[in-house]
Specification:
Blueprint (H helix, E strand, L loop, with lengths): L7 H4 L4 H17 L6 H19 L6 H15 L8 H7 L5 H32 L3 H30 L8 H14 L12 H4 L3 H17 L8 H27 L8
């Protein structure tokens, strides 16, 4: 999933302008999932993401139901672009670690990244509370933080599957769907999931599950709006805790159903 094409092959009805904007947004989010970002780089990318979101659909972020649908659509568009490293690449990047140690390193890095996103969002929000227009920028900032955190966690879910011998397979759309469902349900991917497109399945119960989970995450991001820099500290802590909780649920599920190695 390192350099996937956009989902327009499955959605088909996007205008060239929408496609260009969506691809730019996806590239920004993919860059935010890197586990070696410095704070300055993360801040710059989050600022770029805010700009991407402004161009994509500002008005919907002021209507709660529409905002959830909008974020679900953004996650569906971004998911195929999330760069998942295969097991061999992960071992090259983190040599000398066994599977459990590698998984723990990935979890720690992802938690540090989502903590960083919360801290950046909180510090930006602290400035916005002092300097208007707060009401204009706050929904965009919350949406940017939520989408960035979801992308980091989708990458973590995909790479944990690689570590424990359950790589996500299928077309780009099928892999994206599997990751979204695993993230929404906080469990390993069901290998019996029928191979259907993201747009098709996210029009059913899976979309409702995704929106419910996004609502919880969006609500947690409201802590970013705390007074002064307390918002940054709280948002970072809550992001880290939620990322680790997701990872532990997925890891336990994967270890229970891990393929057995036959010696002989």
């Amino acid at each position: 999933m390192s350099h996937p094409d956009h989902l327009e092959a499955e959605n088909g009805d996007e205008t060239p302008e929408q496609t260009a904007a969506d691809v730019e947004l996806s590239r920004t989010v993919a860059a935010l999932t890197a586990d070696d970002l410095e704070p300055a780089g993360r801040r710059k990318l989050l600022g770029r993401l805010v700009g991407d979101i402004r161009r994509r659909g500002l008005g919907q972020l002021f209507r709660p139901r529409a905002a959830l649908r909008w974020m679900a659509d953004v996650v569906a568009d971004v998911a195929p672009h999330v760069p998942i490293r295969d097991k061999a690449t992960l071992h090259r990047h983190f040599p000398g670690l066994d599977d459990d140690e590698l998984a723990e390193r990935l979890i720690r890095n992802a938690a540090r990244s989502t903590t960083g996103v919360g801290a950046v969002g909180g510090s930006v929000a602290a400035v916005e509370w002092i300097a208007p227009p707060t009401l204009l920028s706050a929904p965009i900032l919350l949406a940017a933080e939520t989408v960035a955190v979801v992308a980091i966690e989708l990458k973590l879910v995909g790479e944990l599957h690689e570590v424990y011998g359950r790589p996500v397979t299928g077309s780009q759309g099928q892999r994206a769907l599997a990751l979204i469902q695993a993230w929404s349900e906080q469990r390993g991917i069901n290998p019996l999931l029928p191979g259907v497109g993201v747009a098709t399945v996210l029009g059913t119960a899976a979309r409702r599950d995704l929106q419910k989970t996004l609502l919880r995450r969006f609500g947690r991001s409201l802590s970013t709006m705390g007074p002064l820099l307390t918002g940054a500290a709280v948002a970072g802590y809550l992001n880290r805790r939620a990322t680790r909780s997701l990872a532990e649920h997925v890891r336990r599920d994967l270890k229970r159903s891990r393929p057995k190695v036959i010696e002989g």
